């Protein structure tokens, strides 16, 4: 077996399909062996990420840990999301997830809520208060570059984010010369 030129990775699964197991194969094929290969890639500028509430975005900048905003206890923030993504997509569930996640982390819990019957906002506020946090879920943050406190408290919490398969390394495309369309001025 050979991997196509330029590809690399670790075999994560092997599946064998045979006629004896009554699997449909092309005519004249008695057995098919499929190897699934995965590669680990660090996240990079241009990669797409999404949460569980339809909130998605593209990595615009990666900063050193010491330049990231940090909490009063010195914990740096992992990801900073654009707050304009909330009113534009109207997905308030992500705010509730952040608050519930922060309360659960402070209380040492793991949370799993039903999809359409999750924790109510007043329950989350009570949990935040029980955890010793503000009821509105906001906290003081400090600028990682200057060390100065931000003017207003900011919503900080724990949220599940995943990397989508729209990776910039797979989509990058360059071109040097060639004809252009007269109408669009594009290649």
Automatic annotation (TrEMBL):
PROSITE patterns linked: RNA_POL_BETA
E.C. numbers: 2.7.7.6
Annotated GO CC locations: DNA-directed RNA polymerase complex
DNA-directed RNA polymerase subunit 2 hybrid-binding domain mapped to chain residues: 2-187
Entry keyword Transferase: yes
Keywords: DNA-directed RNA polymerase, Nucleotidyltransferase, Transcription, Transferase
GO biological process: DNA-templated transcription
GO molecular function: DNA binding; DNA-directed RNA polymerase activity; ribonucleoside binding
Protein name: DNA-directed RNA polymerase
InterPro entries linked: DNA-dir_RNA_pol_su2 (IPR015712), DNA-dir_RNAP_su2_dom (IPR007120), DNA-dir_RNAP_su2_hyb_sf (IPR037033), RNA_pol_bsu_CS (IPR007121), RNA_pol_RPB2_OB-fold (IPR014724)
């Amino acid at each position: 077996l050979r991997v196509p030129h330029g590809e690399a990775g670790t075999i994560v699964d092997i599946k064998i399909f045979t006629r004896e197991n009554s699997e449909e194969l092309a005519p004249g094929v008695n057995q098919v062996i499929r190897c699934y290969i995965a590669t680990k890639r660090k996240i990079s500028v241009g990669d797409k990420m999404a949460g569980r509430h339809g909130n998605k975005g593209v990595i615009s900048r990666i900063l050193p840990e010491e330049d990231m905003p940090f909490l009063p206890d010195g914990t740096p923030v992992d990801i900073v999301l654009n707050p304009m993504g909330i009113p534009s997509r109207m997905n308030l569930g992500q705010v509730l997830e952040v608050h519930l996640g922060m309360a659960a982390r402070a209380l040492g819990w793991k949370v799993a809520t039903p999809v359409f019957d999750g924790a109510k906002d007043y329950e989350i506020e009570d949990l935040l208060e029980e955890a010793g946090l503000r009821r509105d879920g906001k906290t003081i943050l400090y600028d990682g570059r200057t060390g100065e406190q931000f003017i207003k408290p900011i919503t900080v919490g724990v949220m599940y984010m995943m990397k989508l398969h729209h990776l910039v390394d797979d989509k990058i495309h360059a071109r040097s010369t060639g004809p252009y369309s007269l109408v669009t001025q594009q290649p």
